[in-house]
Amino acid sequence: MMGLNAKDKRILVLAPHTDDGELGAGGAVARLLEEGAEVFYAVFSTCEESVPAGFPKDILGREQLAAAASLGVGEDRVTFFHYPVRKFPAFRQEILEDMVKLNRTIRPDLVFAPSLHDVHQDHHTVAEEALRAFKKTGILGYEEPWNDLSFDNQIYITLEERHVRAKARAVACYASQGIRDYTSEDYLLSLAHCHGIQIGKQYAEVFETVRWVL
């Protein structure tokens, strides 16, 4: 698995907002858990300012816990921070300090983070600060095509259909985000199938190599 024996390894998923972890790396998380890894989430905003009308303000935090649980990540392995959505650049130092603490307590073997090419200001801030906080750890940047004007398909994690469907079930936990086209099961399966075709497999997720430590 990616030059890394997943068993007993500790994986940290950095999600600027609720749902980013599942959308960017949900298939890989499903596979890594199946292979014996421990997976942790750090979610930097529950986006209360962006909750659609008709939903309670805390809905995204609850949906995040349900999505993580559906993949097999327990509530005790999900850490929430509460930075205001779309304003992360103003809190860059605080976000870095939170990541440094996560590094000390979790001691991850591999970190999934947004792409450094992600144009969303919150995603880009998390990606940049991850470079500083996890200097001795492998980091892979995950793909979110609606935010990535450029993306280098450098690492392919092959998936079975069960992993992609597990990802789709996790994303489906975000009922408040159902209006977004990229949360549909058809889209998620098609994207994974497209990447699989690129390497002669049925399904895959792609990542950029930020830092690779063997």
Tell me about this structure.
By secondary structure, this protein is of the alpha/beta class. It has one domain: Rossmann fold (3-Layer(aba) Sandwich). It contains 6 helices and 7 strands. The chain has a 7-stranded mixed sheet, with helices on both faces. Helix 2 links the parallel strand 2 and strand 3. Helix 1 packs across helix 5 and helix 2 runs antiparallel to helix 5. The longest helix is centred in the N-terminal third of the chain and has 15 residues.
**Structural class of the helices, strands and pairings?**
alpha/beta
Reading side by side through the largest sheet, how are the strands ordered? 3-2-1-4-5-7-6
End-to-end separation in angstroms reads 12 Å
| Average pLDDT, all residues | 96
Computed over alpha carbons, the radius of gyration is 16 Å
Which bin fits the share of residues in helices? 25-40%
Structure keywords:
single chain, 214 residues, alpha/beta, Rossmann fold, seven-stranded mixed β-sheet, 6 helices, 38% helix, globular
In short:
The chain is α/β, with parallel strands linked by helices. 38% of the residues lie in helices and 18% in strands. It has a single domain (10-211), classed as LmbE-like (Rossmann fold), CATH 3.40.50.10320.
Spell out the blueprint of helices and strands.
Layout: E1 10-15, H1 20-34, E2 38-43, H2 59-71, E3 78-80, H3 92-106, E4 110-114, H4 121-133, E5 138-142, E6 155-159, H5 161-172, H6 185-198, E7 203-211
